[in-house]
Amino acid sequence: MSEATPTENMQAETIVPSIVPPVNVPAEDRTSRTADNLEAKGQSGLEARGVHAWFDKHHALADVSLHFPQNTVTGLIGPSGCGKSTFLRTLNRMHEFIPKSAMAGEVLFNGEDIYGSDVNATEIRTRIGMVFQKPNPFPAMNISENVLAGLKLAKVKSANKDDLLEQCLTRAGLWKEVKDRLKAQGSSLSGGQQQRLCIARALALNPEVLLLDEPCSALDPGSTLRVEETIVQLSQSMTIVIVTHNMQQAARVSDYCAFFLSDGGPGRLVEADLTTNMFSNPSDQRTADYVQGRFG
Amino acid sequence: MSDTEVSPRALKVSRGTSDKVFRGFVLAGASFSVAVLGLICAFLLFRGFEIFKDFGFSFFTSSRWEAAADDGSSPAHYGVAAMLVGSIVVATIAVVLAVPFAMSVALYLEYYAPQKLKRLLVSLLDLVASIPSVIWGIWGYTILMPHAMGWSKTLNSWLGWIPLFKVPVPIFERSPFIAGTLLAMMILPIITAVTREVYSQAPRDQIDAAYGLGSTKWGAIKTVVLPFGKSGLVGGTMLGLGRALGETIAVYLVLNLVFKVNFHILASVGGNVASMIASRFGEAGPYELKALMAAGLVLFLLTLTVNFMASAIVNRSKKAA
Amino acid sequence: MTVFTTPTSELVIPDPRTPWRNPRKALVSNATTAGFSVVIAILLYTLTGLDGLLGWYASFILGLLVVVAVQSVLQKSKHFTDRIASIMVTVGFASVLIPWISLITTVIQRGRHAIYVGFFTHDMLVNSMDEPLNMGGISHAIVGTLIIVGISTLIAAPLGIIAAIYIVEINGKAARTVRFLTQAMSGVPSIVAGLFIYSTVVITITHKNNALAGALALSVLMLPTVARTSEEVLKVVPRDIRDSSYALGATQLRTTFKVVLPTVRSGLITATILGIARVAGETAPLLLTSQYFVKMNTSIFTSPMASLPTYVFGALRTGTELSLARAWGGSFVLISIVVLLSVTARLLSGRSTGRK
Lengths: 296, 321, 356
Known about the structure:
The complex is a heterotrimer of chains A (296), B (321) and C (356).
Chain A: H1 27-32, H2 35-40, E1 46-55, E2 58-68, E3 73-77, H3 84-90, E4 101-109, E5 112-113, H4 121-127, E6 128-131, H5 143-147, H6 149-153, H7 161-171, H8 175-178, H9 191-203, E7 209-213, H10 221-234, E8 239-243, H11 247-253, E9 256-261, E10 267-274, H12 275-280, H13 285-291
Parallel strand pairs in A: 2-10, 3-8, 3-9, 6-7, 7-8
Antiparallel strand pairs in A: 1-2, 1-4, 4-5, 9-10
Helix pairs in contact in A: 7-9, 9-10
Chain B: H1 17-55, H2 58-61, E1 65-66, E2 77-78, H3 81-112, H4 115-129, H5 133-159, H6 176-200, H7 204-212, H8 217-246, H9 249-254, H10 273-281, H11 286-320
Antiparallel strand pairs in B: 1-2
Chain C: H1 23-47, H2 52-74, H3 80-114, H4 139-170, H5 175-185, H6 190-206, H7 211-236, H8 239-247, H9 252-263, H10 265-280, H11 284-288, H12 308-318, H13 321-353
Helix pairs in contact in C: 1-2, 2-3, 3-13, 4-5, 4-7, 4-10, 4-12, 5-7, 6-7, 7-10, 8-9, 10-13, 12-13
């Protein structure tokens, strides 16, 4: 696996010149992800079928069907208020924490509806991890306690906590920076480091899917780059769904993109495709307008 | 320093006469209000000074409270030790009993109660907070006491070997335990109000983070809400302690006033400074009145200290939020 | 090449679901838990010394905890602590309700015996506390409370609002100090307020116990409540409103009186009512200042004056069955007044800010 930075792997098929091309996934991998292959993988990964979401009477999201193939990065893009964050929260049952919320449709995780009546929602959340917009390490805990917080909260046993700690921080690309001060407070880290700490915290439960809700919106460009590298690294071994406002970011990190839009009513999925196609040859005019920065 | 350095220019607001008068007037009004605190201290000291002079430190260490005999055979003697200890014992019992319940109520209202019920319950809490202490007292005397005496007996028969729960004579009426229980109910609304406010400000994103890690509701509360609300709880508790130390009428009605230092909380022996003042005031002669003023000053300073600490803690926790 | 389902243009909206709330499943599981708990509760109740309604309550809770513990072990659930915590929090809350309900129902049940029409029109001049309940009344105490609380409101409400104006509008150098001290003032024990007024007003000036002294003592207690609530009310006024007034060239005096205060009028009334509710039931300071008087009187300088709290206290101290009934009757009237005031304040503030 190469330590490639986004710019090194520039590809010819990229059309939109102002955008740094999506990369880091070896070319053969990318080509193998054709529609046919994905049909075969239908049972695995995460799939939303006809998902709707409501906040009280407000219909926020309508009829979204999306498949997230295993070990890919899918970017959810669209202007604010288009329901993409709401959609993300329906994928690991975080939506229900908002009072008076409701939903419809199914979210299949390895073929099973996570909204089924026998499903334990807390267990689902350990397998579908989440990282939030603002870095939010637990202030009452130090760095290592933060990383391992999930074990305690979800009551998961771990044979060797020290190894797990190192492994998670390494995967989150933070180990080298914090290995000498694991007992320091999480809040002593910079914003970008805190966000990678939150990623490490989510990784400790070894989730199969990681949901990221605009993880870089509160970070400076340098930290953003580090987090993006981390995401690309992680996508080798897990499915990632990332909500982003930033077109370039979607182009840099994602394999697939899904464009959401609200015309004043509920947010809807306009188009979803390989990221390269979305940016070079979108089938919907609204997508083309959005990715080229004409609105939003 | 270079000559070209730019230094900030202070902006000065010039105000018209009417505003100057207005601001002066408001400042005077506000100062007058808070000056009352100083006046209370000054006047009580002025009236009670003779007592501090006559008895010195023994006013704090002695438990005797006796007026001079009419025939002059024994001089007057006044000491508040028993009442001070009594105040602290009763208030401590109240706080120890009230805090866990206040936490439950605060957590229930913020995180467990159905949304519709919550508003109703918060109004109910406000209503209970405004029940006058004389009514708590009459209820405590007629309804609570018979029950609490039963609990006292049970406590005594199981835990009587601990000095705290020992009773010299098996009379369980009007004990510090009963007074403390009643006070716990009275101070619960104030502790709950402060705690609930701080709990409600616990950062939503961190609670989400806990849930996102597969936490249960209690896990999220333990990891995020309780550490966040710690100082609010301490501040609220101190406020409750202040109230409990200064409560008069309810304690007067359910506590047997005896001038004796007593740590057996189930025994029918106790008192606190406030209720002692109320009960002695009616028949006090001029000299005893001075002693009561001195006792009032001690109580005032004690509660003021507790309240200062409480406000400082509550303000700090609000700022952190 | 499209790898995803493309959305169809016509949208069929299904019914909203809340799969996380499963009333039927919850009902079945809760009913099972409750059923087993009742069984254990009956065992506990009969086998131990637990007694009465409270005994049932305690045995049910113990039973519930046992059942949940057993269930968690059987189901190998990781959520044992969570379930126990939910139960403890709910039980803690429910237990707190017990004395509240008891107090309110007792006051109503026992208080109504003492209440008849004459209760509101007679005083106690020719009757003693121990006489039958169809004689004598509390008119003197009601009038007394109205007078004493009325005067204290006239003193404390303006001062409290001025303190709030100083803290929020003027925001001068001493604002933090004033705020801190008003907060501390709310902790002055009521008996100390009584002693203070006794030692200043009664001893030095009037040489008599009278209603004015009582009113002054109450205003010491009322002021911090008014100041604090008013402060919160004033803080809600957006800065822009003041700025736009200043931008029109208005002075601070005019801005405060013509712009800020009118917008929060009902909030300030709420603050005042809350202050009244805070002191209307105060007993201790009145015992030292206005004391108790059997007769209806309106002189605030020359003689003691009855009030509802001191009436209740006096009846209670008489200690006979009939006087106790009178105490409950007085409590009923007193608590009704206080509750009415609180509710009015809440309703007003709810309307003024649009929030709860």
